[in-house]
Amino acid sequence: MRVTMRSAGRTYDDALGQADGRESTWALCGLLGPLRIGVDDLDQSASVAPKIRTVLAMLCTHPDQVVPTSALIRELWLEQPPASALRTLQTYILSIRKLLSQLAGREPLEIAEDVLVTRAGGYRLQSSGLRLDWLDFMQLADHGRAKLQAGDGHAGILLMEEALDLWRGSAFADVPTGPVLESRRLLLEESRLDTVEALVDARIEAGLHQKVIAELASLTSEHPFHEGLHAQYMRALALNGRRARALEVFGRLRTRLVNEIGIEPGYPLQQLQLTILNSHTTKYVPLSTD
After folding, report:
1. Which of 6, 150, 163, 206 is in the most buried spot, having the most CB atoms within 10 Å?
2. Which residue has the higher pLDDT, 290 or 233?
3. 3-class SS at 13?
4. Model pTM?
């Protein structure tokens, strides 16, 4: 079974060198949440064993690159691989090829020759026709920031909303991670949080501060030490005429930082507090906590 879809784009870092034109998509692979792979949606989980999910995630996070066998073995078993590690890995690769064969409606031998190919020292997943949600997210977020920098707030907001809508939970939610995937997971989660901050900031600048208050209440609860999100929450509350509530947010954050980490809030956040205390507007207060 084949389907044709319009990909949002799949370029990021090394993938920037790949063609980003529209192409026929024969499979979708989702890593922004539980691992999903399918032909027309990401509603169904991949019915594969946990270690096979690890191998598939390694391949999907390094499209069009040779992933060394040694890296795969270390990701699976860290520093204590079994004597049968290489043979077991080959079995996992065979299982993934069978899965891709079913999705693409092609023979396993064709998959081995054209899609998941064996190279000297490792394996390479060809990304042509394969849609990867994490690459879609990175490109949409980058394009959204570019629109904001160009002064097109409306388009920037829409692009970043589309990027964040791709997330279905925590990255690699059901994938056992080793050192490489854990590093990539942290990178993606940080990129997600950066995009959330940029989107909230853009909404506030567009006068939509009332609509972000509930979202920021949840985000600051989820990230209790994140000064940037707390600054945005304080600013949105103050702009909505709730200065006392904004100062309460600062007070609680300061208490947590002092009692649990032993530090004071950063200078930008302290300046925001003073602005709220002494003014009826926080329009021109920067949100950066750098």
Report:
1. 163
2. 233
3. helix
4. 0.83
Tokens of 159: 């692009």
Helices (H), the chain: 50-60, 69-77, 85-104, 108-114, 133-149, 153-165, 179-205, 209-222, 227-239, 243-256, 267-278
**Element (DSSP H or E) covering residue 125:** strand 122-125
Q: Provide CB contacts within 8 A for 208, sequence distance 6+.
A: none
Q: Which pair of structure tokens corresponds to residue 214?
A: 């509930």
Instruction: Give how far Cα 129 sits from Cα of 58, 61, 112, 121, Å.
Output: 18, 15, 15, 25
pLDDT, tens digit, for every residue of 163-186? Answer: 999 999 999 999 999 999 999 999
Rounded CA separation 127/24 (Å) = 12
Under DSSP, the state recorded for 12 is: S
One-letter identity of residue 238: A
- Quickly list DSSP for 17-60: GS--S-----EEEE-SSS-EEESS-S-SBP-S-HHHHHHHHHHH
CA atoms within 13 A on the CB side of 195: 27
Intra-chain end-to-end CA distance of the chain, in Å? 50
Q: What length is written for the chain?
A: 290
Tokens found for residue 23: 């192409």
Alpha carbons 261 and 96: distance in angstroms, whole number? 45
Distance CA 186, CA 189 (A): 5
Amino acid at 283: K
Closest CA to 100 of 31, 23, 26, 162: 26
Question: pLDDT tens, 222-267?
Answer: 999 999 999 999 999 999 989 999 999 999 999 999 999 999 999 9
Query: Which DSSP category does 260 fall into?
Result: I
Sole residue written with tokens 């890593």: 31
